Amino acid sequence: MAVGFPSRAFFEALQAEMRRERERFSRLGYFDTVFGVRVLDDARTPLACTLAFEVFDCVEVRDGIDPGAVDFVVEGPLEGWKAMLDTIHRLGAADTTHSLNTLTHFGETLQVRSDDPIGHDKLYRFAESMQAFFDLSARVDFTYPDGTRPPAARGAA
Amino acid sequence: MAFFAQKDFFDDPALIELVTNIMAGNLTLGWYDVDTPRMRAVPADPARGLTYADCNLGSYGYDAIPELVRNRSSMAARGSVLVPDLPDIGYTVNRKSDVWAPCVPALYEEAKARRWAPAVDVPWAELKGGHDDPLRETAMAQLCTLLEEIALVAMEAPGRWVFWINQEFLELKSLLCAQMFDEARHVEACRKRALVGGRGLGRASVTAEHALKEILCAETYPEASLGSNLLLGSFVLAMYRALAALAATRADRLLATLSMQDVARSVAYGIGQAEYHLAHQPAKVDAFGAYLDRIEHTMLGIVGSAEFLEPLVLLAGGGDGPDAVERGTRFARRWLAATCEDYFARCRRTGLGDRRDRSRLGRVLGELTG
Amino acid sequence: MSYLSPVDYTEDRDFLDRLQRRLRGDLDLSWMHVDTEKVACTAQNERRGLTFRDLDVGSYGYSALPEVIRHNRSFAPRGAALPPGLPDLQAEVNRTSEVWAYNIEGYYEEAMTRQWNATTDIPWADLAGAELPEDIGKAYAQLLTFLTEVEMIATDVPAKWMGRLAADFFEVKNFIATQAMDEARHAEIFRKRALSTGYGLMRASRHNEWNLKFLRDADSFAEASLSLHLQAEGMVLTLFRFSEYVSPTEADKKLFRLVMQDEARHVGYGMQHLKWVLDHHPERREIIHQHLDEAENFVFGAGYATEVMEPFIILAGKGTKKEQIAEGVRIQQMFQQKQSEEYFDRLAKCGLPERRERSRLWKILDLTLRQQAA
User: Which of B69, B131, B147, C217 has the most CB atoms lying inside 10 A of its own CB?
Assistant: First the structure.
């Protein structure tokens, strides 16, 4: 059954996929950060979720963001997140134009907010693990608030 | 040969007698009952393994290192029992707040865990035959030539100091080894990238090299760390970040992202060291500020060089026609401004205050980027 | 005294004017037309990936290195275009034969891909429950104390030289960086294992500390490499192999196998470096012998390091009872013999077969063997 994006269930689905890929995430190395995700939508209440990563696992997905308890927050409009997720679903992983790094580069599509440069810099220290985490959405069946789905995987029937 | 043993052991009857006795089964066992604390290090988190944090126990731990290391000048392991007549190895960096940061053990563990090998972790086959855009490939080769230059210096920066730092700071010296290793990886990756695309290496940069030499030749370790980890590191981190954002292939994105991860660790250490240093030697805040006042100009010599800036403009703009160059220069101006702001934010974090008003670098970049 | 760039880039009008023009789109682009070799290196073996050996092409390659680096005193990558005005790196080592080794590029790539992690690659949680009898535990903790004490010399010494080598020798610099990381890992694993035995660290080793100072204070890179990589690490390699043999647990055997891999690489570099030197500069033979004379003096003096020899005897004999010590002594003697033989064998393979004849260490070993045979 499809989960909705954005929702806590979506990120819990990613968490479950990450457990299945433990070997891969182990090879990427320690992944120690807590960050928030905020999806802004004019028509709805923004979704705010906190994702906690420790060692090689996503250890917690929770509703809400306590600014004092996260290293940084990645936020942006639904359309910005869709751009990344649609690409991931179509290609199996984000391409360079739609990676988290590119979309947040100058803050035009997605923005990174942090009060602490050390926390902010964890976005860079764990960049590949973060991207690999979001790339897991290629395997998740989800719908957007308007009921649409991301495009089918390239080559899919 | 500089150093000789205290005696010719081949002509030492006492030695022969000692060894003969031991070989006859008469062990001296002088070491057997040394009075060192009996502790057992165990992993706090089995998934993480046994970390240096787990070994931070009593007199063995890094928390037990005093601010001034006066009585341990050999390579004896921290916490081991010293014996008379140990040599003075010659360490000149013996003050904890000159080198330490609380994040050191964790960053060392992270560096090991997040290792990668350019030969096999970058999908080089994707780049076979070079890019179908010669202009792009030439720009990429030039950027990588400059990044190789930078990495050669960034590899030497910790190497210059590790020899002189007291062995009590084992975890810190280990982190410096990890830094050298990271930068060796960047030398390798950038050189390989430049030579795989059909254009060969580009041009060495006079302004960047003079700038890098000035950073490399810091007089003290705290200044060396400030200059290479915080200042240079901030800009190089942003370079790799931009390269990842502008990448046309997965191979280039991966190369830049993985390199960025490594540099971000050095930056984290640079922030942590400066913060710790100033917390313990608050009188140094003026000296640190003055050092940055003097040395920040070197960033302009690097990022303002033709060998960096022009390839960046071409990559960002997607070509060398007027519209593309306009796009590219807009990107470059934004990049310079944003990178400088991030650097100032890191400086504030260390306790250096807001450098925006006093920094000549900030003033000049502000004027140039409008 | 620090170095100051000839130009303050925030003040120099020419530089700032050029920069401003650049940011407005007036690009110079002269770097696009440099006369460097156009190459497209490819991986000869896709499974191995793209290696430094694949980059050994034309003027970029290490095969093209001259004996004396005259043309590049800067940080410029080998083969890059060298514009006028580059700074002087003040490299002290500009002769290839001072640093080069056959297969240096192979050792580097191997090191880069064979990094293991002392934190996670040993089953520490299992070892937490492994109680060692007191005599074995203390002996093992003492051996580990010695090993953690000496390992970082092979970080400090190569790192000291890294910045003194010409930039054209980057394969060597890179190898030095991997060795630094290897040795940090060794110091780490021996320390962690000592602290996980429950006995903690034991006694520092006076004799070996003076040996470390000898290694640190070598006059030249070649001397440093000879005594560090070939003599010291060669003998430590044999020690690791015997330590695996006498290890108290399976996890410890794995530990020694892992450190052995790294050490063998360093010894390999040392051997290949010596071969290169003797092949290209046979006139250095006597200087090499003189250095080894003193290095072997320290080796022989290691008899004073009872905190190394005696734990090994106890571990080898598996205890402190009289018959166990006798067995331990027997194995210790085998080990010393093997250690010395391997050392002289390596020297012979590198082109120094006459070392045995010259060496007082060999003469004493030979005498001891003859006495035992009699």
Answer: B147
Nearest CA in chain A to B337: A106
User: Mind listing the pLDDT tens digit for each residue in A8-63?
Assistant: 999 999 999 999 999 999 999 999 999 999 999 888 888 999 999 999 999 999 99
Taking only the tens place, the pLDDT of each residue in C209-246 is 999 999 998 888 888 999 999 999 999 999 999 999 88
Residue A155 has pLDDT above 80, yes or no: no
Question: How do the domains of chain A map onto residue ranges?
Answer: 3-139
Q: Which of the listed CATH numbers 2.60.40.650, 3.40.50.2000, 2.102.10.10, 3.30.1050.10 matches domain A3-139?
A: 3.30.1050.10
A45 and B CB contact within 8 Å: no
B37 contacts on C by Cβ (under 8 Å): 200
Question: Using omega within 30 degrees of 0 as the cis cutoff, is the peptide bond preceding A6 cis?
Answer: yes
Q: Are A125 and B264 a contacting pair at CB < 8 A?
A: yes
Q: Check CB contact under 8 Å for B34 and C202.
A: yes
Q: Shortest Cα distance from A70 to chain B (angstroms)?
A: 17
Q: What is the mean pLDDT of chain C?
A: 94
From the list C1, C27, C40, the residue facing B130 with the nearest CB is C40
Q: What's the pLDDT band for C55 if we cut at 50, 70, 90? A: very high
CA atoms within 13 A on the CB side of A133: 26
CA A28 to chain centroid, in Å, comes to: 17
| Nearest neighbour of C177 by CB, restricted to B16, B153, B184 | B184
> Does the pLDDT at position C1 exceed 60?
no
pLDDT score at B128:
78
Sheet containing A111-113: give its strands across.
A57-63, A47-54, A33-40, A72-77, A111-113
* pLDDT tens per residue, range C92-145: 999 999 999 999 999 999 999 999 999 999 999 888 888 999 999 999 999 999
Facing A99 at nearest CB: one of B103, B106, B253: B253
Please, what are the domains in chain B? 96-369 (1.10.620.20)
- Amino acid letter, B191: R
Instruction: Please give the pLDDT value at position A154.
Output: 76
Instruction: Tell me if B145 and C80 make a contact (CB, 8 A cut-off).
Output: yes
* C-beta atoms of B254 and A128 within 8 A: yes
Rounded mean pLDDT, B179-202: 97
- What's the ipTM? 0.96
Residue in C with minimal Cα distance to B106: C119
CB contacts of B128 in chain C (<8 Å) are 40, 42
SS (H, E, C) B244-309: HHCCCCHHHHHHHHHHHHHHHHHHHHHHHHHHHHHHHCHHHHHHHHHHHHHHCHHHHHHHCCHHHH
Whether the CB of C283 is below 8 Å from some CB of chain B: the reply is no
**CB distance B271–A117 less than 8 Å?**
yes
| B44 contact C CB<8A | no
The per-residue pLDDT for A157 is 46
Chain A residue with minimum CA distance to B347 = A117
Quick check: B56 contacting C, CB < 8 Å? no
Is residue C317 predicted with pLDDT exceeding 80?
yes
Q: Are B72 and B59 in contact (CB under 8 A)?
A: no
> Would you state the pLDDT for residue B131?
64
- Taking Cα atoms as reference points, which of A105, A119, A131, A132 lies closest to residue A34? A119
Q: At what angle do helices C170-196 and C153-162 cross, to 10 degrees?
A: 160
Model pTM score: 0.95
Domain ranges of chain C: 15-90, 96-373
What are the DSSP E strand ranges found in C78-138?
none
Of B39, B149, B167, the CB nearest to C200: B39
Closest by Cβ to C10, choosing from B48, B83, B361: B361
Which of the following CATH numbers is that of domain C96-373: 2.130.10.120, 2.60.40.10, 3.40.50.300, 1.10.620.20?
Answer: 1.10.620.20
